[in-house]
Design a protein that fits this description.
This protein has a single domain (2-167), classed as Cyclic Phosphodiesterase, Chain: A (Alpha-Beta Complex), CATH 3.90.1140.10. Helices cover 25% and strands 35% of the residues. The protein has three helices and ten strands; from the N terminus they run βαββαβββαββββ. The protein has helices at 11-28, 53-61, 93-108; strands at 2-7, 31-32, 40-47, 68-72, 74-78, 83-87, 121-126, 141-145, 149-156, 159-167. The strands form three sheets. A four-stranded antiparallel beta sheet has the order 3-1-9-10. Strands 2-7-6-5 form a four-stranded antiparallel beta sheet, covered by helices on one side. The chain has a two-stranded antiparallel sheet with strand order 4-8. Strand 9 (149-156) and strand 10 (159-167) form a beta hairpin. The structure holds adenosine-5'-triphosphate and magnesium ion (MG).
Length: 169
C-alpha cells in the first residue's frame, strides 16, 4: 500500500489553510485540495508491503517528538506538477531535524526513498493553470504540532484520499 508520514493541521488551521486554497484556486485554477486532505508530508514512503505495516505502526507509536510551532509565511510553487503551496520562506529547523531523524529510523526499518532535499509545505492546489502568486495576500499562520500520522493514500474516482493507519504517542 502507498504510505506517507505527515502532520495533520488542527481544525482551526485546517479551515484557514482551506481559505488560502480557495484564494489560490481563484487566481491560479487547477484542483483544490479538499480541507480534510490538507497536511504536511514529512516522509513519503511509497509502496510498502502489507507485512511491514505492523512494524511501522509499532515504531510510530513509540515516537514522541517534542513538537513545535511551524510558522507559515510564504506561498510557493513546484512548477512541473503545477503545485501551489503554503509554507515557510526558509525551512523550519525543528521540522528539518524531525524529518532527518524519521528517515534515520525508517532506514533502520529497511525502508528506502530518503529524498535529497526537504521543503516543508502544504499543497493547496494541483495542476494549477497559472502559477501567479503576486495577487495573493501575505500568509501569517502558526501551526502548533506534536503528533505524526501514518497515512495510506489511495485513489478514488474524484481524486486522492488518505486514511490514517497509526499515530505517534
Ligand atoms: P495524487 O498523486 O494522486 O495526485 P497525492 O499526491 O495527494 O495524490 P500521493 O502521491 O500518494 O497522493 O502522495 C502523498 C503525499 O506524499 C503528498 O503529500 C505528496 O505530495 C507526497 N509525495 C508523493 N510523492 C512524493 C515523492 N516522490 N517525494 C516526496 N513526497 C511525495
Ligand atoms: Mg502525488
Amino acid at each position: 500500500m502507498r504510505l506517507f508520514l505527515a502532520i495533520e493541521p488542527p481544525p482551526e488551521l485546517r479551515a484557514r489553510l482551506g481559505a488560502l486554497a480557495d484564494l489560490a484556486r481563484a487566481q491560479c485554477g487547477g484542483r483544490r485540495v479538499p480541507d480534510e486532505s490538507l497536511h504536511l508530508t514529512l516522509a513519503f514512503l511509497g509502496e510498502v508491503e502489507t507485512a511491514r505495516v505492523e512494524a511501522l505502526t509499532e515504531w510510530l507509536q513509540g515516537v514522541s517528538p517534542e513538537g513545535g510551532e511551524w510558522r507559515l509565511d510564504s506561498w510557493g510553487t513546484f512548477r512541473r506538477p503545477g503545485i501551489v503551496w503554503a509554507g515557510g520562506k526558509t525551512p523550519d529547523p525543528a521540522l528539518t531535524a524531525l524529518q532527518a531523524r524519521l528517515w534515520d529510523d525508517l532506514e533502520s526499518l529497511g525502508l528506502g526513498g530518503r529524498p535529497s532535499r526537504f521543503v516543508p509545505h502544504v499543497t493547496l492546489l494541483r495542476r494549477a493553470r497559472r502559477l501567479a502568486l503576486d495577487a495573493l495576500p501575505p500568509i501569517a499562520l502558526a501551526w502548533p504540532w506534536r503528533r505524526l500520522t501514518l497515512l495510506r493514500s489511495f485513489t478514488e474516482q474524484d481524486g486522492p484520499r488518505y486514511e490514517a493507519l497509526a499515530r505517534s504517542a
